[in-house]
Amino acid sequence: MSAAQRKVWGETMVELARDDERVLVLDADLATSTQSVLVADQVPDSFIQVGIAEQNMIGIATGLASEGFRPWVSTFGVFLTHRVLDQVRMLVSQTKLPVRIAAHYSGLLNGSSGKTHQDLLDLTIMRAMPNIAVLAPADAAEAADAIRWADAHDGPVYVRLARDAVADVFERDAAFDPSRPRLVDAGSGAHADVVVVSTGVQTSRTKEALDLLRAEGVELRHIHLPALKPLDDAALVAEIGGARLVITVEEHTVLGGLGGLVAETLATIGSGARLHRIGLADAWSESAPNDFLLDKYGLSPERVAASVREQVEAERAALAS
């Protein structure tokens, strides 16, 4: 099992702050939860506690960025994409200033804090925001790479970070490029015309799901997108190739996130592939234990495997007829 992305965040920010005094972490009274507390403890001059004042935090970060600092704002993702959206729109997106947004506890698995703290719309919202890169790393290693890339990027970045650890998918990559799709499994044999695309920590669970199917003799091509923006469209099209069926899997609403991005890409190139999206439908989530939520909303490895199996069987039946 990998380290939790929030722990990776805290450790990586300590390293970055020690190397560059311009790097600052602004926290909205959640330093222990997000592990920004590591910066507060180890590099205190690089840590600013603004309290429960998320809107002000964006304004302070923008001011610091305009003076040559490289600020990161850190709190739960839902606050950054909903409560402070106007400040992000006006002060960060429109100015293109290098404010980095560390969105912790993103996705479904924050049910213990209540459904008010869950955010399953963030990729849709931030992907539509001009000038902001939108990163969704798969595991601890990719989170570290994504954070370092974001810190060096000359512009605003949104990084989606999960609370809990997931199984490792990748190793560290010195040449990390978020715009490039990453191949998780090449697949083979009779199912080479089916491609599964995932993003964020759901990639780890999707890999587990496809391992279950492989044991049944169903080997599928699996692609991970580390970012929804920027995206090398040509590289994604090349990875999808001549697939007849493309299945997207995301811990997020199916409206406008990964599924929307892949649908737009396929439509733009005139692909004849059929698309099936796995994720939350047009509905709010709820408070509950993690395993219950993953199972109910079809995102556990077992439920993803079942959904993919059903789609593959339907595709085979259509070809046979």
Summary?
The protein is α/β, with parallel strands linked by helices. It has 13 helices and twelve strands.
Q: Main traits of this protein?
A:
Rossmann fold; alpha/beta; seven-stranded mixed sheet; 2 domains; 321 residues
Mean of pLDDT: 94
Number of helices: 13
| Shape category | globular
Q: In the CATH hierarchy, what is the class of the largest domain?
A: Alpha Beta
Task: Tell me the total number of β-strands.
Answer: 12
User: What is the total number of structural domains?
Assistant: 2
Distance between the termini: 44 Å
| Cross-sheet strand order for the largest sheet | 2-1-3-4-6-5-10
The CATH homologous superfamily of the largest domain corresponds to Thiamin diphosphate (ThDP)-binding fold, Pyr/PP domains
- Residue stretches low in confidence (pLDDT < 50, at least 5 long) are none
Order of helices and strands: HEHHEHEHHEHEHEEEHEEHEHEHH
What helical percentage do the residues reach? 40-55%
CATH architecture of the largest domain: 3-Layer(aba) Sandwich
Give the percentage of residues in beta strands.
15-25%
The biggest beta sheet is recorded as:
7 strands, mixed
The SS-based structural class is alpha/beta
In the CATH hierarchy, the third-tier topology of the largest domain is known as Rossmann fold
Rounded to an integer, what's the Rg over CA atoms? Answer: 19 Å
